Amino acid sequence: MSNQAANLPPQKTSGMDRFLNLIEKAGNKIPDPAILFFWALIIVWVCSAILSNVSFDLINPRTGAPLEITNLLTGDALAHFLANMVTTFTGFAPLGIVLVAMLGVGVADSSGFINTGLKKMLNFTPAKLLTPMLILVAIVSHTAADAGYVLVIPLGGIIFHAAGRHPLAGIAAAFAGVSGGFSANFIPSGIDHY
């Protein structure tokens, strides 16, 4: 049996697969998002300290006073940052939905529900309709507020990987669907008003 596997010709990859693999390798070299946000925080603090001494000619149209950059590395600014950190964190509206959704996805993944559901879905969905179906689900996912960005985009990669297609293509298709359906959904959602 192993001789038969050894005699098979190497599987050829398309140009798109090679391109997506290149993007994936480059993306894997990027640090953890928490580290990126920490670096961005440090860069903003340092730039604010440097640029706070520079005067600009830009005028605030409301007050008529020149715009000034606030030094975020002063004691008062750091104390304000630390004192209001919890309020800033909890005041971010999508956070509650994201935390509950991630908790639900974690339970569903650990129980095997996601794997079973994806296998069942892939059994009755023709391969040529997989991309349109993913985009439709991504568009409609906006009815669950911002959960589409958190849930459907990674699930698009999982679905495409389970179907033997490149996961980045699934992520791109899901992102296009969620972004396109964010304010132009088929179904009325929380941000639609009279």
UniProtKB/TrEMBL annotation:
Chain ranges passing through the membrane: 34-56, 81-108, 129-162, 168-187
GO BP terms: p-aminobenzoyl-glutamate transmembrane transport
Keywords: Membrane, Transmembrane, Transmembrane helix
Gene Ontology molecular function terms on file: secondary active p-aminobenzoyl-glutamate transmembrane transporter activity
Keyword Iron on entry: no
Transmembrane helix as UniProt keyword: yes
Top-level division of the source organism's lineage: Bacteria
Pfam families: ABG_transport
Record protein name field: Aminobenzoyl-glutamate transport protein
Organism this protein belongs to: Vibrio ishigakensis
